[in-house]
Amino acid sequence: MSFTKTSHKFGQWVDGRANTVYGLGFGSEQLLEQFADKFEEVKAAMLRTKYKPHSSPDIAIAAAQGLRRGQSRRSARPPAPDETFGALPGQVALPENESTGRRPPPHSSLVNGQELEAELAALRGVNAELKASLETADSATEASMRETATCRQECEALLAKVNELERRRAEADRLLASNAQLSRHAQELEFQISEREQERALLTQRHEEVKEMKEEAERNLQKIKETEQKNAELQKRASALKEELSERQRKKEAAGREIDGWLRTLDGNIAELVEFRDCLAKIGQL
């Protein structure tokens, strides 16, 4: 028989005679080390018992079978010391061939019984310690199984949370993409608004210029009207003067030359006014 550590909390008990391998789990690496130490102690004690000159081979066999039954994961409890090694030293069974063919000499039976009793007592103590170690390992294994179940539940809950977070992250990515698209659209709208503002400012400036030109044209038209009114008044006066001069010409021939000179002067003024009116009319057309 041999015991091998396979990891920090697990080991293998190999029974070569039964061609069986038992897997053992422990709550911690310390419990695994304690069990391995106890196993080596029991194995060494069994070997010492097996190779003593006057000891019985069935003692080692019974101890090995008791240890194997105690470590088997199919067993509900370890074997009791009496089940492993017998109730009394005198009741230890011998192999069939030795019980029928060879018996210890009568003069050495007392000595052999005392030695067997001492060895059985030592093996019972070791078996009790091993039983306690197995019970501790079983309880640690159950606690480890409960802890594993709890961890599994926590892992499932964490996986559910991770899936939820992944779903939220995907939704957030979609929102970010939508926000980026809206931001680009907003920037395009802002650029268009800026262009419209520039166009509006240019149109406002042109409107102000046109308004000023209209006001200036209205002022020029007003001046033209005033000039035309003055020209009309001058024409009326000229007509009156002509009539008066005609009458005076008939009365005084001497005053005719003077009146003709006045009329020539008046005609020149009228021509200048007409030219001025034409100029104002051209300016108004611009």
From TrEMBL:
- Pfam families associated with the record: WH1
Coiled-coil stretches = none
Q: Where is the WH1 domain?
A: 1-46
Q: Name the InterPro entries on file.
A: Homer, PH-like_dom_sf, WH1/EVH1_dom
GO MF annotation terms = G protein-coupled glutamate receptor binding
Q: Where is this region: Disordered?
A: 65-110, 223-255
**Which protein are we looking at?**
Homer protein homolog 1-like isoform X3
Q: What is the lineage of its organism?
A: Eukaryota, Metazoa, Chordata, Craniata, Vertebrata
Q: Which gene encodes it?
A: LOC116950683
